[in-house]
Specification:
With 89 residues, the chain is an all-alpha fold. It has helices at residues 5-15, 25-45, 50-73, 75-85.
Length: 89
């Protein structure tokens, strides 16, 4: 379940430091959050899709690691990201 080019562009414009920034942790977290939301909807329909469930858990784990990294570098940015993306602590 890849994101469309338009959706990726919107996320990069909103969270990126510049227009073509896809590598900063903020953008990576925002992109993962978008993919996680789509995959969560998929899992609600297809409850027995265990391969997708494993991928979803892997994305959540990767996002958690990136959030921990941002929290160590800039705690205020971490709190701002949580609020803007609607992620629970």
């Amino acid at each position: 379940m890849a994101l469309t080019t338009e959706k990726t562009g919107e996320v990069v414009n909103e969270f990126g430091r510049k227009s073509d920034d896809t590598g900063s942790p903020e953008v990576q977290i925002a992109l993962l959050t978008s993919r996680i939301q789509e995959m969560t909807q998929h899992m609600q329909v297809h409850k027995k899709d265990f391969s997708s469930r494993r991928g979803l858990l892997r994305m959540v784990s990767r996002r958690r690691s990136l959030l921990d990294y941002v929290k160590g570098k800039n705690p205020q940015l971490y709190l701002d990201l949580l609020q803007r993306l609607g992620i629970r602590k």
